Amino acid sequence: MQNKEILRVAEEVSNEKGVDKEIIFEALEIAIASATRKKYGEEIDVRVAINRKTGEYDTFRRWKIFADDSTELEFPDKELRLEDGLDVSPDAQPGGYVEVPLESDGMDIDMLEALLSRHRPRLIYTNPTFQNPTGVTTSIEKRRSILALARKHGVSILEDDQNPELRFAGAPISSICALSEPDDDVFYVRGFGKVFLPGTRLGYVVTPARARRSLLGLKAQSDLHTNGIMQEAMARFLARKNYPKILERMKRVYATKQRKLIATLSAGMPPGTLIGQPEGGLNLWLTLPEGAEVSELYYRAVRRGVAFVAGEGFYASHTNPRTLRVSFGLLRDDALEEGVTRLCSVAQDLMPPRSASSPIFT
């Protein structure tokens, strides 16, 4: 779903000459701080480092994780797909990942504490709101528990809060960053692409004061600078204060798409299919019944012109070959309906006849 106002602002900026990049940066920082505090009522210490969203985890890893360190990640998780070149040994070899199982309300806290004691990692990575790919939202109790364990074990937290604005049901939950104290080592990352304009590749990190300069240095080493036109366009867009109305319209559109997708999947997928029902976000997480494998489903679906993401790519270990992620943000209603109909047809063809009654919602 495109935000035409941002596109108009970007064209306006691109036609100007001599825009000062320092003024751009300051304007965007002020706009982000104002928007974050006003929208979510979170009094967080807004020291912002502008960041291309696709590189945030690599930058943090270079800054925080050294040769003998590991990272604790909830699983399944999108970062395991973005970092294919890294050591993802289940035994947490140097520089590797340690996976923490997800429950319906977030990380398994008992397992997290055990793994923190065993592996002594330097960083906990979490995507607590409408987690990608599962759609799970971490409860306020578990957010406090994660923060408490990070304090106890001297571990930093990287909170990737990609699209908490896209909530269709339930009440907003404070970020871990908003719950933290000034001395806590919490890094809060947010991007604009998922919400306002796909492909923007623009985001920010709220960082402890001591880390800001070094993170900006690593950012500069990674790609010199972020697109100046898009920074200025986003700063002006936020300053015009039209985004709340635009966001409400987007939420209505996406909520309708999500409801239609769930209804069509529940009617057409094989009996026993687990269908996630997140309170927001742009993805659904499915688990096929016993006896089905996503690899064969993907091969057949692609031949019918339908694509999805197989769940195996979201695990470093402990893979579940029956899981898949379905996304719906960019599709027109007619294309979404046709695609799901084809997917359900292919999935039914894979399954032997059985007597189970209906899909199961999670």
Would you write up a description of this structure?
The strands form 2 sheets. The protein has an 8-stranded mixed β-sheet with strand order 1-8-7-6-5-2-3-4, with helices on both faces. The chain is of the alpha/beta class. It is built from 12 helices and 13 strands. The relative contact order is 0.15. Mean pLDDT is 77; it is low at 38-49 and 80-94. The chain has helices at residues 4-14, 21-40, 56-64, 79-82, 109-119, 140-153, 176-179, 209-223, 228-239, 243-268, 294-303, 333-350; strands at 48-51, 71-75, 97-103, 106-107, 123-126, 156-160, 186-191, 203-206, 274-275, 283-287, 309-310, 323-327, 360-361. It is globular, with a radius of gyration of 21 Å. The protein folds into 2 domains: 4-241, 3-Layer(aba) Sandwich (Aspartate Aminotransferase, domain 2), CATH 3.40.640; 245-352, Aspartate Aminotransferase, domain 1.
Largest sheet descriptor: 8 strands, mixed
Query: CATH topology of the largest domain, anyone?
Result: Aspartate Aminotransferase, domain 2
Report how far the terminal alpha carbons are from each other: 27 Å
Q: Any low-confidence stretches, pLDDT <50, length ≥5?
A: 38-49, 80-94
